[in-house]
Hints:
Elements: E1 48-53, E2 56-61, E3 70-72, E4 77-84, E5 90-105, E6 109-123, E7 135-141, E8 145-148, E9 151-154, E10 159-162, E11 168-184, E12 187-202, E13 229-234, E14 237-238, E15 243-244, E16 247-254, E17 258-260, E18 264-274, H1 275-287, E19 293-303, E20 306-315, E21 318-320, E22 336-346, E23 355-356, E24 360-370, E25 381-390
Parallel strand pairs: 3-12, 17-25
Antiparallel strand pairs: 1-2, 2-4, 4-7, 5-6, 5-11, 8-9, 10-11, 11-12, 13-16, 14-15, 16-18, 18-22, 19-20, 19-24, 21-22, 23-24, 24-25
Amino acid sequence: MKVSHNMVFPPPSYSPLTPCPIYSTSPRSNEHTLQHTPLSGHARSTETFIRTEDSITVILNGQKENTGRLTFGRGALISGSLLLESAETVTNTGIRLQGILESLSLSHGYSQLKIVDQSASLYPKEGSQMRCPSASPFSLRFPLSFKNNMIHYPLPPSCDITLPGGAFLKCTYSLVVTVNVALHRSLPFFTKEKSLALELEYRQRTRPSRPRISEPSLFSTIKTCPEEWLQLSVDLTVGPDSLASDIYCDLFVPSIGVFGVTETVPFHLQLSGSIRSLRELLLRSRAVPDQSIRVYLLRQIVAAEAKIRTVLGEGSLLPLPPDIDGLPNVSLSKYEEAVSWEGEIQLRGITTPTFDVGTFRVMYLVAVELSPPEACSINRAHYGYPMKLTTDTWVTSADQYD
């Protein structure tokens, strides 16, 4: 049977369309919310902050009066009013938002970087001939970025980090209100400037893009979810010629690499190789208390090409079976075994998250340090894995973000 290519077939019949299900913002009694990411625009505080100095009063909207800090987030709006007790002799008023990042180090001295410098005139307004009002509303918005060496960077957070030897890294933001007052009504050109400065805390809230693995043990999760762990190799060498060692050192950390400043960082450390070399390294290290294997949190600050490293927290090593005492007492190098430890690094007392503005950087690393005894043929080794610290954890409610 031949079929003509010009024959037209009717479309297949379809059943009536099923109506779309009814959606609601809240689950029913027989439903559960599996994941919830609220919108970033949350209800802001309706409270006001008031500060008075030398007949100048500044009112800021959306700030609590008794907290002691005026906190703003990414692209936040600074709005309020300037009140004057006596405006008859005022010749002009203005506001200025400033941000300065400065550092001091023994090797490179003092350096400063201006981040924000925005100003606005409140009185006189262009084209206005009116007398200065006793109340003037104002508003300024934090910029989303600034330029350093022709590259745009997000604003760094407010910080005040004291470093060894009198060094420091400090980032400050301030709102300055200025009022110029004529010394006499008949002499408007002779003025006196009054000012009121408010220190602002800029904190762009950030969090990891996804949750990390909840189980901190590598052995119980590596087979079911291997993608949650990152294996990092630490190079070990022997002898003055730095030949490759027959011992291998591996550090396992969560692959997400991003943690909130209040979290803990789980890790797993493994040494594998010939039993003879393992016993030589570990048994001799045990006999010398000040030489051992360490895993710790390292903060590295780069300011004007000066690098300053500070150990912030030590991870406790919990040996996993078999430990060094469980290794067979053999001298042949062909026998291989592995010794493992697991532990956590507590992120305590950290208030400054990771940031990078080119010439100034604050970064954190999970560091492994192996310090064999002098009689051991293995050389000292050090390795640092950079990780990012955010202001909040992934489980923090998203409706708190600016």
